[in-house]
Amino acid sequence: MTSLERTLAVLNHRVPDRVPVALHNFLMGCRMIGADFTQALRSGEILAEAQLAAWREFGHDVIMHENGVCAEAEALGCGILYQSDYPPHVQEPAIKSLDDVDKLTIPDPANTFPLNELLKATRILVRETKGRAFVIGRADQGPMALAAALCGPEKLLLACAEEALRPKVLRLLAICSRMNIVYGEAQRRAGAPGSSIGAYGSSLISPQMYDQLEFIGDKAFCDAMRRIGCKSFVHSCGDETALLEDLVQTGADCLELDPRTDPAACKKAIQGRTSVLGMLDPSSILWRGTADDVRWHTLEMMRTMAPGGGFIVGPGCLLPADTPARSIHVIMECARTAGAYRCDGSLPWFS
Question: Can you tell me the distance from the alpha carbon of 25 to that of 266, in angstroms, rounded to the nearest whole number?
Fold first, then answer.
């Protein structure tokens, strides 16, 4: 199988030849080619060069392409601070008050910075990998995270708690959801077979608030991607064990989760309904751990998550820029050996 075929097999609830590997590594890629983040994260050409350099070295199956969590916020008017050694962050919200929500307009991603540069990178990655990799053209942050960037997180969360302000909050979230969909559709037109948003999960809001405020937009994104033949991914940081059923109900083709979510509960929740990408610890293990630490961690996660398919192994969140290349090579070794499937979906290495 090619990497594209292998990944699609997982997303379509079939057993691949082996467990695919995904890397959330745009900062690591930039560091590998010696690029200054201030320049690289604003240039489609440099972002693509960085991802291709990593792909050629490691041979992973899934390229998770983005420039941070501020692209849509910047396109909608937020002031963004770019720094030479750190990912960008919102410096100035786009609106001062929820009364200004209707001043926001959805831009055309093809003609709006930095979305146009990210789409350029998607086109380069799809062209240069020639179908040998599955490219996720990530659609940035989901509705709640984007809304928090646009008006400020404290202001948003306080407004969410006031019933009188709920209509304005919902209006803002509807605009953010539409931005997610428009950008995801643009990523598909650029050639990406998949797109992703980052949900506000239970590490930030209660499950009740997730159901009332975030779920609607997450499901709308997944539904919209399905209509255009684009695989949908929903990323959620933290321990989402209690939120697993809600996340599955979004209709996402794949959930991006980190190791704080209980793997056994996760495997039980997703069986035949969706798939999972990630669950390796990007900081404590992949960044700071020894090769033996990485090997043990990867094998233990695969032991739980991989049988029967439905699993793409990789870091559960963004890899630090100076993650040792050794860690990634170990993950690839584990996937190619212990991750090889029998036809019935079992893994001989774990027998």
Answer: 24
CA-to-CA distance for 285 and 168, rounded, in angstroms? Answer: 42
- Helix/strand/coil (H/E/C) assignment for every residue in 127-151: HHHCCCCEEEECCCECHHHHHHHHH
pLDDT tens, residue by residue, 172-203: 999 999 999 999 999 999 999 999 999 998 88
Q: Is CATH 3.20.20.210 what the domain over 3-336 is classified as, yes or no?
A: yes
Q: Treating both helix axes as pointing N-terminal to C-terminal, what angle do 115-129 and 44-58 enclose, rounded to 10 degrees? A: 30
- Residue written as tokens 């420039």? 67
- Cα(59)–Cα(3) distance, integer angstroms: 9
Q: Is the distance from CB of 16 to CB of 10 less than 8 angstroms?
A: yes
β-pairing, 79-81 with 89-92? antiparallel
Which runs of E-coded beta strand occur in the chain?
22-23, 62-65, 79-81, 89-92, 134-137, 194-198, 231-236, 254-257, 275-280, 311-315
What are the residue ranges spanned by the domains of the chain?
3-336
> Residue 202 — φ and ψ, nearest 5°?
-75, -5
Angle at 220 between CA 219 and CA 222, to 5 degrees: 65
Give the tens place of pLDDT for each residue, 200-256: 988 888 899 999 999 999 999 999 999 999 999 999 999 999 999 999 999 999 999
pTM across the whole model:
0.97
The sheet carrying 231-236 orders its strands as 22-23, 62-65, 134-137, 194-198, 231-236, 254-257, 275-280, 311-315
Give 240: exposed, middle or buried? Use CB within 10 Å, 0-12, 13-18, 19+. Answer: buried
State which amino acid sits at residue 187: Q
Angle at 310 between CA 308 and CA 314, to 5 degrees: 120
| C-alpha span between 215 and 190 (Å, rounded) | 27
* Residue (of 258, 351, 235, 255) closest to 311 by Cα position: 255
Whether 106 contacts 182, CB under 8 Å: yes
